[in-house]
Amino acid sequence: MVVSFPVMFPSPSVAMPDDAGAQGAATRMRDVAQRAGVSPMTVSRALRDPSKVSPAVLRRVEEAVRAVGYVPNRLAGGLSSMRTNVVGMVVPSLDNSLYSPTIQGVSAVLHAAGYQLMIGECGHSPQGEEALVAAFLAQRVAGLMLHGVHHTEAAAAMLRRAGIPVVETGSLSAKPLDMVVSYSNEAAAQAMTLHLHRLGYRRIACVTLPSAGNERSRDRQRGYRAALASVGLEADPALLMEMPPGLASGAEAVVRLLQSPAPPDAVFFAGDVLAAGALFECQRRGWAVPARVALAAFDDIDILRHVVPPVSTLRLPRAEIGRRGAEVLLDRIEGRAAGTVAVDLGFEIVQRGST
Fold this sequence. Notes:
Blueprint: E1 2-4, H1 18-36, H2 40-48, H3 55-68, H4 74-78, E2 86-91, H5 100-112, E3 116-121, H6 126-138, E4 143-147, H7 153-162, E5 166-169, E6 179-182, H8 185-198, E7 204-208, H9 215-230, E8 240-242, H10 247-258, E9 266-269, H11 272-285, E10 294-296, E11 313-315, H12 318-333, E12 341-344, E13 348-350
Parallel strand pairs: 2-3, 2-4, 4-5, 5-6, 6-12, 7-8, 7-9, 9-10
Antiparallel strand pairs: 1-3, 11-13
Helix pairs in contact: 1-2, 1-3, 5-12, 6-7, 8-9, 10-11
């Protein structure tokens, strides 16, 4: 479990008299005020709500803060309101570049509004997410963004008791904890499978990441099965495979499928790296794509459009999910909106030469 803290909080195990802490902070704020040529109250106002001071005053205060090295105690300032200007975000992995556009979208919106983003990695573990939720709540974050819509009972209970705004991403839910901004994994997988069927493929395989502890993989499998059922195709268990992430897994999957007694004519990889690995293995073995087997992917990572042939895929609005998720979170934090919010940003099928 990894937590990245862009701001530092005092350790709760270190005792410090209230007047000593306040006196130290006031002294440093007076230093800033003296250097900027304004009152300590103006410094406090500029740091808490920059819109309440003129641009010239804000510039002088910011220059003085940098010169003095003053670090505002956001936690102490937020104790009375029981919140800070920090938003917590839980992602399954920091290694997977797919989460970067969402993180960047969230960060840009929060930064423009004067908030900071704190990121934690749960390692695809519900228990890891639960521990991060507890850690973030202990820091009195203003809100939380969670990648996923399935949580442990303990995590859900903590969030309900905390009463802070929560945005879920990564999938849609009919019963979100609070707010959800995403796309439907099930609908996306169903759409791609039906797209392959419309192109004339009839023996369509599906390869996903392991479904244990991963509701997105389970949703994608459901979408694949629903598509087959809707066009009257039998769901052959031999054509549904789970593989760990990685290029090697995609290569192994396509070899096992094409060397089986009844090979597929198309393989839908519900994971972009898996699809890339499968294409590279087909090229290595001289298996023509799509003449021998068509390949389709789930995410439009950059490499998929530059390989030969370029790979058909699902394009997902990951950056927009981050931006819109942060916007609805801020609307709730700052009292501009109330009630359950569900935003479906959809997806797009990108047809390319691999199918």
